[in-house]
Amino acid sequence: MRKPIIAGNWKMNMLPGAAVDLVEGLWAQIAGFDAVEAVVCPPFVDIPAVGKALRDGSMSLGLGAQNMHWEESGAFTGEISPLMLLDLEVTHVIIGHSERRQLFGETDQGVNRKVKSALAHGLVPIMCCGESLKQRESGQTEDVVTNQVKCGLFELEPAQVSGVVVAYEPIWAIGTGKAATAGDADEVCGMVRRTVAGAFGADVGESLRVQYGGSVTPDNVSELMSMPNIDGALVGGASLKPDVFARIVRFT
Ligand code: 13P
Predict the structure, then answer these.
(1) Residue 131: predicted pLDDT
(2) Which of 82, 112, 122, 137 is most buried, judging by how many CB atoms fall within 10 Å of its CB?
(3) pLDDT at residue 97 is higher than 80
(4) Domain tally, the chain
(5) What is the DSSP secondary-structure string of the chain?
(6) Whose CA is nearest to atom 1 of ligand 1?
(7) Is residue 80 in contact with ligand 1, taking CB distance under 6 Å?
């Protein structure tokens, strides 16, 4: 059985004080609900304060970063290393979000290095993939997504791949209010699973958790989560309000 995982990607929002209020407000509404693994991914500068709030309040929420460098230390101005994240008790890390690929030039090779490094350091990578509107309209979705998944997981051991979470986020659905239909999302998430099964074995494909992301709300989450290949959600805008994100986490 794959335990559903629902993560809030706060992107570049929330100062530390507001970030603490957000997790406290969230926890007040989901404490004791353990059917879903819930994760919050604040900006780097909020992580110390959010981590302290989680520990002080004994909140069993995952703490995720939104990016990291693959090296442990060195001359990489502006970057954050896996050791720095571990020191702050970070558990998860989003890797290769489409905003990082499109706006900051991240490549499949860089994503692969980061996924390898996250796994080597015991962090759960949430590796993102997804096609643009132009790619979808020209029938390239399968090629684009399977290529991103194969490149991102290149040279990993099958046992490692079971520990990766793949987030399928079609770029045209991010922040637009136009989520993919549950059927379309499931089709691509199934494609991701088959790609992984083909490369790493049927068992690994079966155990892989695949999230859908892109305009997930309390209104569409139940249908998305009812699909056979969707094991969770990566949520942007709707994760910034505690009551709204709590309704998503408690989708059942
Ligand atoms: P929205 O939920 O705001 O569409 O963002 C999705 C996303 O990019 C999560 O990583």
Answers:
(1) 98
(2) 82
(3) yes
(4) 1
(5) -PPPEEEEE--S---HHHHHHHHHHHHHHHTT--SSEEEEE--GGGHHHHHHHHHHTT---EEEES---SSSSSS-TT---HHHHHHTT--EEEES-HHHHHHH---HHHHHHHHHHHHHTT-EEEEEE---HHHHHTT-HHHHHHHHHHHHTTT--HHHHTT-EEEE--GGGTTSS-PPPHHHHHHHHHHHHHHHHHHH-HHHHHH-EEEEESS--TTTHHHHHTSTT--EEEESGGGSSHHHHHHHHT--
(6) 236
(7) no
pLDDT of residue 252 exceeding 90: no
State CA 5 to chain mean position distance. Answer: 9
Q: What is the mean pLDDT of the chain?
A: 98
**Length reported for the chain:** 252
Q: What domain range is 140 assigned to?
A: 5-249
Q: Which two tokens stand for residue 156?
A: 């990993």
Neighbours of 3 (CB within 10 A): 11
pLDDT tens sequence across 200-230:
999 999 999 999 999 999 999 999 999 999 9
Extract the tokens encoding 116: 């390898």
pLDDT, mean of residues 92-102: 98
214 lines ligand 1 (CB under 6 A): yes
- For residue range 125-155, what is the model confidence (pLDDT) as tens digits? 999 999 999 999 999 999 999 999 999 999 9
Atom of ligand 1 nearest to the CA of 173: 4
Nearest atom (ligand 1) to Cα of 11: 10
Find the distance separating the first CA and the last CA of the chain, reported in whole Å. Answer: 17
Express as a percent the part of the chain with pLDDT over 70: 100
Closest protein CA for atom 5 of ligand 1: 236
